[in-house]
Design brief:
By secondary structure, the chain is α/β, with parallel strands linked by helices. β8 and β9 form a beta hairpin. It is elongated, with a radius of gyration of 18 Å.
Length: 223
């Protein structure tokens, strides 16, 4: 599908969807990704007095009072095709080095799973799903993070992927064949400040407590 890029950013951006919304996390996100994109129902969490989204995107079946925002000068783009989620619509319409994705976890399990699936499908994009308690990112075969010792660290495969190497974990992943419905990696634990993991393919999701966000941002080169 040929899609026109609406805008390109050279800094991290904040996006907000219609899932579980955590105001303090969202406001912290805006300090890092100052450009804001409202995705469909995520618009309903915003206040014209406090927020200025650059774009309103999606199939717009859940966004309320879009006319008022348009009158205020906000750009809007309806993307009615139903072959992708609203998160994916944002990813193929807006380019940025990092997407801080609020409101794409919680409320509905199907939407949460769809968001996780999108991380794997759009492995060319750097996306952090921000939830009330956890953050989720995709591991593009290998990753190195500086984390607090004792941090809960979970791995969930969205396809078959084998662990090649790890250090800094209580339970090594080396030689493990991960797959949905088979071997998964929930509730591992960080035992050293530097954690490294290598896999033989893409498709592994990393789940960390929301308190680890600053450490994850460092791995993307964001102070």
């Amino acid at each position: 599908m040929m899609v026109k890029i609406l805008q390109r950013f050279n800094q991290p951006i904040t996006i907000v969807g219609g899932g579980e919304f955590v105001p303090d996390i969202f406001e912290s996100s805006l300090q890092i990704g100052k450009a804001l994109i409202a995705v469909d129902g995520g618009l309903n969490y915003l206040s014209p007095r406090r927020h200025s989204p650059v774009w309103i995107l999606g199939d717009l079946d859940s966004a309320i009072d879009t006319e008022s925002w348009v009158k205020a000068g906000v750009k809007i783009k309806s993307l009615p095709e139903q072959n992708s989620t609203d998160l994916e619509k944002c990813l193929y319409s807006i380019e940025a080095p990092l997407y801080l994705a609020n409101g794409f976890l919680g409320h509905r399990i199907d939407h949460t799973l769809a968001s996780c699936s999108t991380l794997v499908r759009r492995k060319d994009r750097n996306i952090i799903l921000l939830g009330k308690r956890d953050i989720i990112i995709h591991i593009n075969e290998k990753i190195s993070l500086n984390l607090e010792v004792g941090t809960r660290l979970s791995l969930f495969p969205f396809k078959k992927v084998c662990g090649v190497h790890s250090c800094g974990l209580k339970y090594s992943i080396e030689g493990l064949d991960f797959a949905p419905g088979s071997v998964i990696g929930t509730s591992n634990e960080v035992t050293e400040v530097t954690v490294e993991m290598n896999f033989d393919d893409t498709g592994m999701l990393l789940i960390l407590p929301i308190e680890s966000l600053s450490k994850v941002l460092e791995s993307y080169g964001v102070a």
